[in-house]
Amino acid sequence: MTTNAQPNSQPNSQPNTQAPRVRKRRATPAADTPRPAAHTRTRSARLLAALFLAPTIVGIVVFTVVPIVGSVVLSLFHWNVIDDPSFAGAANYREVFSDSTVLVSFRNTLLFMVLAVALQLLIALALALAVNGRMPMWLRSVFRSAFFFPLVLSAASISVVMKYLFNQDFGVVNWLLGLVGIAPVPWLTSEHGAMAAVILVYVWQQFGFSFLLFVGGLNNIPKEIHEAASLDGATGLRKHLNVTLPLLSPTLLVASVVGIINALQVFEQPYVLTNGGPGDSTRTVVMVVYETAFEQLRFGPASAVGVLLFVLIMAVTALQFRLSRRFVHYQ
User: Fold this and answer.
1) Helix or strand or coil: residue 87?
2) What is the spatial distance between Cα 177 and Cα 52, in angstroms, rounded to a whole number?
3) Pairing relationship of beta strands 77-78 and 86-87 according to DSSP bridges
4) What letter does residue 151 receive in the DSSP assignment?
5) Which neighbouring-strand residues pair with 77?
6) Is residue 328 predicted with pLDDT exceeding 90?
7) What does the angle CA 9 – CA 10 – CA 13 come to, to the nearest 5 degrees?
8) CB neighbours of 211 closer than 8 A, spacing ≥ 6?
9) Taking all residues of the chain, what is their mean pLDDT, rounded to a whole number?
10) Cis ω on the peptide bond leading into residue 34 (within 30° of 0)?
11) What's the pTM value of the predicted model, to 2 decimals?
12) pLDDT per residue as tens digits for the range 40-69
C-alpha cells in the first residue's frame, strides 16, 4: 500500500505576505526653484544694471565703434565733401606709403613717444617717491594738487603760453639760461630744439597723471616689506630697485600703456608751438590727418593714415601686455 506523501505546505509560522507600507511624503517645491518675489528682485536688479550701463555702452558704440568702422570704410574711397565718394580700394594706402611726409610723421611720432614717455615716467616716479617719503600730510596734499593741476588745463592754451616762454629773443627760458652763462637756444627754430621744446611742454602737462598713479601704487605696498628689506641691509637706491619697482610693476604697466597711447596721438603741442616745423621735424601723425582732411579735403587718404595709426597703437599695446607676463609681478 502506497501513500502519497504530501509536503507540508503550511509551515509553523506564516510569512507576512503584505507589501510594506510606504509612507507618503508631502510634495515640496525644489530648493532651487526661485520664489516669485526673489525672481522679481533679480529681474529688477538686472534691469537697473542695464539702465546704468546703457549710457556708457551707447557712448562707446557712438563715439568709438562707429567712427572706427566709418574711418575704415572711408579709407577705401575718394571723397572731398563736395563731390560724391568714389571707390578707391587700396589706392589710398598705396599713396600713404609712398608719401614722404607721412613716413616722416610716423618717425617723429615714434621718436616723440619714446622720449616723452620715458621722461614722463621717470619724473613722475621720482616725485612720487619723494612725496611718499617723510613729509607732513598737508604738504603732501599740496604737492599732489600742484603736480596734477597742469593736466586739467587746456593743452592749446598751455602751448600758447609756452611758445612765448621758449622764444629765442625774449623768452623767459633763455633769460634764465643766460643767468648761468648759457647762450640763447633756438628752441622753436631748430630741429632738435623744436622737438625738445615740444617734449618738455608735453611732459610738463602730462606727468601729473602718472604721478598720482605712482603715489597710489606706493601707498598699496605694505610697510612690512620695506622694513624687512631694511633689516636685510637694503637701503636707498638698492631697496627701490629690488623691492619697490617689482611691487610697483603693475602700476608701471598701466602708466606706460596710457602714456604711450596718449603720446602717439599728440597734436596740440606741436601744432601750436611749431606748426610741425622747422620743415617736418615736429610734424606728427595726427597733424598729417588733420591737414590732409580739413585743409586739403582729402578724407580718403586721411582716414587711411588714421587707420594705420590705430593699428600701430593696438600693436604697441599688445606688445606691452605680452612683455608684461615676464616683467610685471603681482602680489
Assistant:
1) strand
2) 54
3) antiparallel
4) G
5) 87
6) no
7) 140
8) 124, 127, 128, 144, 147, 148
9) 85
10) no
11) 0.82
12) 778 888 888 889 999 999 999 999 999 999
